[in-house]
Amino acid sequence: xxxxxxxxxxxxxxxxxxxxxxxxxxxxxxxxxxxxxxxxxxxxxxxxxxxxxxxxxxxxxxxxxxxxxxxxxxxxxxxxxxxxxxxxxxxxxxxxxxxxxxxxxxxxxxxxxxxxxxxxxxxxxxxxxxxxxxxxxxxxxxxxxxxxxxxxxxxxxxxxxxxxxxxxxxxxxxxxxxxxxxxxxxxxxxxxxxxxxxxxxxxxxxxxxxxxxxxxxxxxxxxxxxxxxxxxxxxxxxxxxxxxxxxxxxxxxxxxxxxxxxxxxxxxxxxxxxxxxxxxxxxxxxxxxxxxxxxxxxxxxxxxxxxxxxxxxxxxxxxxxxxxxxxxxxxxxxxxxxxxxxxxxxxxxxxxxxxxxxxxxxxxxxxxxxxxxxxxxxxxxxxxxxxxxxxxxxxxxxxxxxxxxxxxxxxxxxxxxxxxxxxxxxxxxxxx
Length: 432
Hints:
Elements: H1 17-29, E1 33-45, E2 51-56, E3 61-66, E4 81-91, E5 96-106, H2 109-125, E6 142-147, H3 151-164, E7 170-174, H4 182-194, E8 199-205, H5 220-228, E9 233-236, H6 246-249, E10 252-253, H7 257-264, H8 268-300, H9 302-326, H10 334-341, H11 345-370, H12 372-377, E11 382-384, E12 402-406, E13 411-418, E14 429-431
Parallel strand pairs: 3-5, 6-7, 6-8, 8-9, 9-10
Antiparallel strand pairs: 1-2, 1-4, 2-3, 4-5, 11-12, 12-13, 13-14
Helix pairs in contact: 3-7, 4-5, 9-11
């Protein structure tokens, strides 16, 4: 831009004030988005939430305006050195150049520590530091990873995936993880992954850095987004000495991206071994249950009950015979001979045998009474559903259900037509 007329060198170009202001505004806008360091002087917060202050250096200064919706990402303390990121504009109505800030971050260890302490205090006051942590899923459907474009971090995670479970689904979101706008970029990557319903755990990863470089991971809005996430969030910033605040609110904090991947990605070998053990245990339990069921069925078989009664009677007869043998006369004991003479051996044996036969007869009568065939022969029937289960309650069937009725001789198939109330004295209506 030139204020001189090219057709008349040395003569000023005549323009209106509006045109001049417009040319100045366009020239200033050409500076673009910049980051500038300086000292905060005389900050003035407004009721609207906007903050005004002067950014001053040794030989220069500029007016800075922080919009109300950006105030959360601006630490403005008088006398503190900061780095302001934003755009420069020329306001024609006031004839002034102003710097509109997107974020204001402290510069220097002391200022950074003070900022972290303030944010930590607000998070603690809201109960976010002490909240219950979410448990990592054993077999997440998809693992989400927010990381920078640094190939090393992604390569570390991919190598762990290849070792533990080749081909496991992992979705990467590569964003700016340091410098101006990094905090918003990281939060945006987290939101994008959480929008995918298949993602069941997210890793925030970075390959280390100093306190200033890690400052985006201490952003208050990012920390709150981690706490509000619908799935567990694992941090792996890769630095032990300078721990950002997102480590303090994450569900799990790991020292490196590789350790985070090991904690999240399941081991295929371990899963297969565990599955084999569980299948083996299930087989053992099934076999034991089958054996117990078979034993109960055998015990309930009428023939086995009858055989057991016969064995009991035989044993009693054998014991009676043993008693008889004990009563045989002894030629060497005269007293035994005298006692045997007073005992009617035949009547004693007959009495024991008769009692044993009576007990055996009682058991036969009991078995006959419990014989299902005899119950059916008296006019009763067994009703079963399509699966073969015995129907004991009319409420267990519905109109239209097919049933099988077992009679004393043969079976018939029926269909339920209606259900009568309990106690009516009528059976469930059915068509054969």
